[in-house]
Amino acid sequence: MLILIGAFIVMASTIGGFMLAGGQPLVLLHVSEFVVIFGVATGVLIIASPGHVLIEIIHKVKGAIAGKSAGKQEFVDLLKLLYEIFMVGRRNGLIALEEHVMDPHKSVIFQRYPSLLNHHERLEFLVNGLKPVIDGKIKPDQLEELMTAELDAKSSEWDHPVHILQLVGDSLPGIGIVAAVLGIINTMAAISDGPEKVGERVAAALTGTLLGIFAAYGFVNPLANRVKFNNASELLCLRCIMQAVSGFAKGLAPLTAVEIARRSLDSSVQPDATELETALKALPAVK
Questions:
Q1: pLDDT above 70 covers what percent of the chain?
Q2: Most buried residue among 9, 61, 262, 277 by CB atoms closer than 10 A?
Q3: H or E stretch covering 35
Q4: What CA–CA distance (Å, rounded) separates 208 from 84?
Q5: How far is CA 203 from CA 65, 126, 180, 200, in A?
């Protein structure tokens, strides 16, 4: 929602200021300039991106526009889920976790937390972290290194759409100049049409420069930054899982492992200790 409000402010401020200065908004509408600028920008995007990155860009942009990032309640639910899972492992043995981890969609515990169950990447990261603990195929002090390697790989992968969007944003002012030069060439070819026609064509050419700069700094680069923030929020969620699971694997009590994870969170989404303790006490008894 905020991104749409910001886009409205950008548009309203630009067009409103232009109108206050006596300008006519329709003067800015030159289809040829739009075709050149957004056509070339789309071509740059396609040239610079492998197919899977293009798909990821669409996914990330949709998420940014929809405002999809983990909020405080999602982190509270995550900590509650981790606590319940750890308590089952502590009281009934690690083998008791197998029925929950091997098929989480049928797990009674996971079903209580749809925000994680329906999020493929978070669920997969948690399950992949718990499986070696259950199987005993890895030493507890090696688990954090393993999960860190997976986290770094995901971070690098999620950065690709940001870099491509920034490339397009940085290219747009130059593309605007290309559109303007094409307009000037067109103007020179029609200079015999008289001052009025020449003035219109020069104005159209300058619109290309304006549009390229406006699209870059008003929309594309800010959008890339929003995607970057969303990625950071998702990485924070995965890092929270890593801190808790690695702590539990090292023998920490469930409450201690969850507390370490809580303290790793940003203040904007971090529940205070009392709030978390109250939420954990309200959980159903572990069987």
A1: 97
A2: 262
A3: helix 31-48
A4: 58
A5: 33, 57, 9, 5
List, as one string, the DSSP characters of 9-33: HHHHHHHHHHHHTT--GGGG--HHH
State mean pLDDT over 201-216.
87
H or E element in which residue 92 lies: helix 72-92
Lookup result for tokens 């303007």 = 180
DSSP for 184-229, please give it: HHHHHHTGGG-HHHHHHHHHHHHHHHHHHHHHIIIIIHHHHHHHHH
What value does the mean pLDDT take over residues 195-222?
85
Q: What is the SS3 assignment for 138-175?
A: CCHHHHHHHHHHHHHHHHHHHHHHHHHHHHHHHHHHHH
Q: Report yes or no: 153 and 193 within 8 Å, Cβ to Cβ.
A: no
The answer to whether the CB of 187 falls within 8 A of the CB of 205 is yes
Residue 190 clears pLDDT 70, i.e. is over it: no
Q: Where do we find the tokens 């548009």?
A: 11
Place of tokens 């950008």: 10
Distance separating alpha carbons of residues 280 and 80, to the nearest angstrom: 6
Which amino acid appears at position 223 of this protein? L
